[in-house]
Write a structure and sequence with these properties.
Rossmann fold; seven-stranded parallel sheet; binds nicotinamide-adenine-dinucleotide; binds uridine-diphosphate-N-acetylglucosamine
Length: 334
């Protein structure tokens, strides 16, 4: 299939492009590079030894999107493009609502106009809110605590309504848990700007000596060791989940959790990182972070049952591959 991958130069998008190319699909990337680099497109081609068509466009721009659909016979869209920093979304809600929602509507409209019937959307476990664990796809969604999370819940509703009104338009809503890790080559991975907000990139930067020590946000949660528990998933497993979701997409709206079903605490992750890489990660316990939930992980059984997909890589592989990318990554000053 010819797949339009929006946000394909980004962290999850780039790994998914590699997986799509390796599965024999053709890839057209549309990315405005607001949180990524053009070189990543070259690296995707280097890793796979395959060609990729790249457009530097903003997918909220309906005229630019129309050109893509006119120039290519597109069989499906995977829509990764979006802004994702939770804290920034509280400060700049309009940017988040505009970018994430308008892009989804512009792309869905182009799909209807050009009879493109397969649409895969990057959603997030954040749409469950503070629900009981494990999170199951059939749960009633609770409000999220920030505009970023709301954009994901709203896009899910918009796409669901469009699919109901247009039965041939098939939608897969993929709710990611906590993506970490990097391609085994160490050539692509997550390279956040500034001080990372998320745990794994913070840990790798401490290991590299860029940051002094990890601050563990709270050890008084009702979890086994008191620190927050999450369902970390290797980005390559996530990427493979997209390929299967697209290939097996049938009419209607399908919601899947993409997680491992395993919870790992902050201290367990630190220990796994030290064991995988033989590097000590100094840390201190500090106060809880506002808005954090004690514990969440997926019920990952639906994706296994319906798509035959489950995550294969364990927490040690996630820590090893995250570190390999960080240690290869020549960011300024290092
Ligand atoms: P990322 O920032 O690395 O990738 C997003 C890409 O989209 C970037 O390359 C950026 O330049 C591009 N982009 C943003 N707005 C655009 C626009 N209007 N037009 C064209 N390109 C645009 O983020 P990621 O971690 O790869 O996340 C991909 C998607 O998955 C996002 O929608 C994100 O919300 C969602 N998601 C991510 C996580 C996570 O932890 N990384 C978890 C759940 C959901
Ligand atoms: C964050 C986002 C969420 C997003 C998810 C995956 C917030 C409030 N939520 O959630 O919307 O879907 O990432 O991208 O930002 N931790 C530390 N020290 C750190 C960083 C994190 O102790 O420096 C702890 C956190 O308290 C948490 C765990 O590590 O218990 C994971 O944190 P993080 O990687 O930020 O992910 P989420 O909290 O799940």
């Amino acid at each position: 299939m010819n797949i339009l991958v929006t946000g394909g130069a980004g962290y999850i998008g780039s790994h998914t492009c590699v997986a799509l190319l390796e599965a024999g699909h053709s890839v057209i990337i549309a990315d405005n590079l607001c949180n990524s680099k053009r070189e990543t497109v070259e690296t995707i081609m280097q890793i796979t030894n395959k060609e990729v068509t790249f457009y530097e466009v903003d997918v909220t721009n309906s005229e630019a999107v129309d050109v893509l659909f006119r120039n290519h016979k597109i069989d499906g869209v995977i829509h990764f493009a979006g802004l994702k920093a939770v804290g920034e979304s509280v400060e700049k809600p309009l940017d988040y609502y505009y970018n994430n929602i308008v892009s989804t509507m512009v792309l869905a409209k182009a799909c209807l106009t050009y009879s493109v019937n397969k649409f895969v959307f990057s959603s997030s476990a954040t749409v469950y809110g503070d629900n009981e664990v494990p999170f199951v796809e059939t749960m009633r969604l609770l409000p999220t605590t920030n505009p970023y999370g709301e954009t994901k819940a709203m896009c899910e509703r918009i796409l669901t309504d469009i699919a109901k009104a247009n039965p041939s338009f098939s939608v897969s809503l993929l709710r990611y848990f906590n993506p970490v890790g990097a391609h085994e080559s160490g050539l692509i991975g997550e390279a956040p700007n500034g001080i990372p907000n998320n745990l794994m990139p913070y840990v790798t930067q401490v290991a590299k000596g860029k940051l002094e020590k990890l601050r563990v946000f709270g050890n008084d949660y009702p979890t086994a060791d008191g620190t927050g528990v999450r369902d970390y998933i290797h980005v390559l497993d996530l990427a493979e989940g997209h390929v299967v979701a697209l290939e097996k997409l049938t009419e209607g709206v399908h919601v899947y959790n993409l997680g491992t079903g395993q919870g790992t605490s902050v201290l367990e992750l630190v220990k796994a990182f030290e064991e995988a890489n033989g590097i000590e990660v100094p840390y201190e316990i500090v106060a809880r972070r506002a808005g954090d939930i004690a514990s969440f992980y997926a019920d990952a059984s639906k994706a296994k049952r319906e798509l035959g997909w489950s995550a294969k890589r364990d927490i040690i592989a996630m820590c090893r591959d995250s570190w390999r990318f960080e240690s290869n990554n020549k960011t300024e000053g290092f």
